[in-house]
Amino acid sequence: MTYPDPPRLIDSAPAIELAFSAAERSAVYRAIFERRDMRHFAGGMVAPEAMRRLLTAAHHAPSVGFMQPWRFLRVASASLRTGLHALVEQERAATARALGEREEAFMRLKVEGLREAAELWVVALADGREKHIFGRRTLPQMDLASAACAIQNLWLAARAEGVGVGWVSLFDPVAVAALLQMPAGAEPIALLCIGPVQAFYEEPMLQKESWAQRSPLDDLLFEDSWGQPLGKP
Amino acid sequence: MTYPDPPRLIDSAPAIELAFSAAERSAVYRAIFERRDMRHFAGGMVAPEAMRRLLTAAHHAPSVGFMQPWRFLRVASASLRTGLHALVEQERAATARALGEREEAFMRLKVEGLREAAELWVVALADGREKHIFGRRTLPQMDLASAACAIQNLWLAARAEGVGVGWVSLFDPVAVAALLQMPAGAEPIALLCIGPVQAFYEEPMLQKESWAQRSPLDDLLFEDSWGQPLGKP
Hints:
The structure is a homodimer. By secondary structure, chain A is an alpha+beta fold. The first copy, chain A, has a domain at 37-197: NADH Oxidase (3-Layer(aba) Sandwich). In chain A, 36% of the residues lie in helices and 15% in strands. Chain A contains 7 helices and 6 strands. In chain A, the strands form 2 sheets. A 4-stranded antiparallel beta sheet of chain A has the order 1-2-4-3, sandwiched between helices. In chain A, a hairpin with a 1-residue loop joins strand 5 (221-223) and strand 6. In chain A, helix 2 runs antiparallel to helix 5 (142-161). The longest helix of chain A has 21 residues, at 78-98. Chains A and B meet through helix 1, helix 2, strand 1, helix 3 and helix 5 of A and helix 1, helix 2, strand 1, helix 3 and helix 5 of B. Strand 1 (70-74) of chain A pairs parallel with strand 5 (221-223) of chain B.
């Protein structure tokens, strides 16, 4: 196979036809760098048209074998929201106990915004996933990976729209599935708090609160075998 | 708790301080809608500076408890690339057999670009993840979800840069881990083909090839209980 005129891709001259403009590229990176896992919300509401754009962005995520395993359930009922909040509080306490020496530090963190967020959505993997084998014979968990990409799309679109999103995974999936009458085989993976915020955190909230720091990028990069540093070009 | 002057968020007037400009919002949605899982590559190379930007984007993904479980291994050795390609071919044949009546349709699809892509990277979950309990006591698989968000960040940044990305999950993770000398507990989740392409597909390749179609968004949205359609605002 020959490659007639492969697109040039050097730093100062990205492939003209295929790359976005410099301004567009900056906007994409801005969304990536300024997206935050929000825990503080300002009430209010999300316009239905904006919410629809966020869901459409989610639905344009990649999925293994194009299986589109994601389902999005809006929590409209106040009593249901209260029920979910109670399940999260229960798991928050259980997690704190399991953390041992970090229990107190954990309990000082705000880890959810279920009551304050304008919108609460539950993201779940659909039932009937066992029939999708493409890309999943040896890695069945790729459906979760696809659904996570959908959530990331929604998250980035929300940042661009000025809407905060927090992904809460402090819950017992069996209890949440029961509360929402999910069929056997469906699995909740996220409680998404979505809504207006007063401000986005300048840095990740858990970094600001000294729970953890971002690792240097080079510590995460290897070449050819695990632990071998990336060669310099 | 009171909410003094919550940011307004109606469709025609997004929260002025927090939303991106209209042009920036469009760029973010463009990346989301024009990103494709690429299987055809044009050789060439990716400038190291561009590759570094893609990895930096990945590293700014959300992660459960800020655990940053992702590791990125660049395949520089030609023999290692050949070895990975052989493992993928092996799994491609095994998947085809497992698909039964869809075996022939599957074998007609191009499902990888390992040999043609300028860059081949293996994404893996790090070893030692069991010590991270925050957000994972009942949902340990949230580390995979985080790493998938990192890959989606890289993918969107690559689209903006005009660089193609394909996520191959047709492999036996145990064999790939052994080939790359991963420690116990580390798990490969993706072979990423990254590089210049002649063009991005107009629509998802698997849709173009009639393997599957995108579901109507409304089929995936529920309200308050599974299967109950979303109420109209």
